[in-house]
Amino acid sequence: MLGRSGLSRTGSFRPENLGQNALHMIGNLCFTIFVIAVLVFTIIAATYEPEDPLFHPSTKITTFLTSTSNATFQSDNTVVRTGEDFMAANQTAFATFINVTDVVEIKEASTDETSSSGSGCEGDSKGPLDCKDLEVFHLMMKEAIERFKDIHFYRFGKPAPGPEENTCDMAWRFRPKEGKTAAFYKDYRRFVINRSENCTLSVVSIGDYHSGVNARKKKKKNQKPGFEKTSGTPEQAVVALPVVGETVNDSLPVVESENAFSRGKYLIYVGGGDRCKSMNHYLWSFLCALGEAQYLNRTLVMDLTLCLSSIYTSSNQDEEGKDFRFYFDFEHLKEAASVLDHEQFWQDWSKWQKKDGLSLHLVEDFRVTPMKLSEVKDSLIMRKFGSAEPDNYWYRVCEGETESVVQRPWHLVWKSRRLMDIVSAIASRLNWDYDSVHIVRGEKARNKDLWPNLAQDTSPDALISTLQNKIEDGRNVYIATNEPDTSFFDPLKDKYSTHFVDEYKDLWDENSEWYSETKQLNKGVPVEFDGYMRVSVDTEVFLRGKKQIETFNELTNDCKDGINTCNAAAS
C-alpha cells in the first residue's frame, strides 16, 4: 500500500507520461555524450605534440638524441630550426607597405613646395645628375615599385651617387608579397637615369641584386630613412625581426674595464660529449646553457669554435675549426643576450682573478639543478662534464624538474644573415616568383626495403605526371634535392624552367661578398662553403617558393622514416 501510494504521488510512471519521460531521458543522454566529446577533444588538442622533435618535451628529445637505432636523426643533415622560424608573422606590421600612390602623393606635395625654386636642370641637361634631388628620388621609388611586382616595399633609403654621372644607388627594405617568414630583406641597386634636353627624367635600367654598393651603409640609430610609411601604432615595432641584407657586425664583445669584469657574474660549460654531433644536437645543448645563464642572471662564456659533424662535410670526417658565426647570427645574439667569447674571458680572468679575489664554483654533476645554484655568489660557475655518454651531454642539465623552470631562449638564435643573404639573392634572381619542389633521393631511394616506391616516384616521368596538376607549365621551379647529378631532372625542362642551388655558385665563390667577409672573419683563411651551408641555403630557398611541394605525402606514399613509420612519426 505504502509503495503504491508513493508511486501514485509522483505520477512519473503513469502510462500517459512514458513518451514524455523517454524524450527527456534521450535528450539528457545526448547532452551528456556531447559534453564528454567536447572534453575529450579539448584534452587531445591541449596535449597534442607536433611531429617536429624540437617541439617535444626534453625527455623525448633526449631519447631521440641518444638512440642507438637507425633513426633518421642520426644521419639527418637537414637544417635546424631557429628562433625566426618560430616567430609568427605580424600581418598588421607587414600591412603598412608603400604603394605607388604614396610616392605620387609625396611627389605632388614636394612639387608644390619647390615649384618656385626651379628644377635645377635649366640650360644644363647634360650636367651631372643630382641624386639628392627629390624628383630623382621619387622617380627611383616609383620605378622600383612598378618593376618588382612580387615584393612589398617598407622603406627607401636616400639615393647615393653612383660611379657614373648618370647613375644613382638606392637601398630599400622589402619582403615578398606571399612571404611566410617573419623577416624583412634589404636590397640596394644601381639605377641608370637619362635626362632629356627638356629635363625629363627616365630610368634606363636597374642593376642586379646588391649592385648599388654606395647605398649599402647600415642605417645609424635615430637616422631617418629617405621614405618610410608609418602605421601610427608604435607597439608593432616591439618584436625585433631579422633584416637580411644589412651589413653584419659580428665582432666579439669585450668587457669595458677591470671594474666591469670584476663585478660581473659568469657561467661556463666545459668538456662533454656534444662536440662533432649533429647541428640539432649542438643547438639543443647550447640553448640549455644559454637558458641556464639567463635564469641565473649570468653572462654565458661560450666557445665560438665548432666541430662540424661528418654528415655535413665533403671529406666525410668531423672537421674542427668552424666558427659559430658561419652558421648563426652572432650580432643578434650579443645584442639580445649577455655572452662573451671564452678566449677573451680567460685572458681577463688570468689578469684580474687573483688581484680582485674572484672565486670559482665548480659543478661536476649535471643533476645539480640551476635552482640549487641560484644563491651561489662566486664570480664564475663552471659546469664540467665528463667522458661517459650520454650523461656528459649539456642538455641533460635542462631535464627533469629543470625543464619547467629553465626555458630555452629560441628567440635569441637566428640563422646566419650572410647565408640568408645568399637565399635572398637567389630568390631575387627568380624575381620572388617561383614554385619549389623538395625531392629526396640518395640513400633512401637506393634502400628498397625501407622506401620501396621512392626511386620510381621521384623519377623524371613520375615527377612530370605528378606535378602537372600542381604546377602550371612554364613556371620557374626551384628543385631542392640531394640528388648529386641534377641532369637527372633534365626531362622536366620541357615543361618548366628548372633551377638548382649549384647554378648560383657565384654567390659564394672567391669573388663574392660572402667569401670575402667570412675570410676576414676567419683571420684571412678562406672558408669552405660546406655541406651544412649548402643544405641550409637549399632548404631556405625552397621555403620561399610560392607553392612548396614535399617528397613525402605529395610525391610518394612512402613514409619519411621508412616502411610502417608514418603513424609513428605523427605520434
From TrEMBL:
Listed Pfam families: DUF7074, DUF7075
Keywords assigned by UniProt, alphabetized: Membrane, Transmembrane, Transmembrane helix
Occurrences of domain DUF7075 (ranges): 260-551
Membrane-crossing segments per the record: 21-48
UniProt KW Membrane keyword: yes
Domain of life: Eukaryota
Name the UniProt record assigns to this protein: O-fucosyltransferase family protein
Organism, scientific name: Hibiscus sabdariffa (roselle)
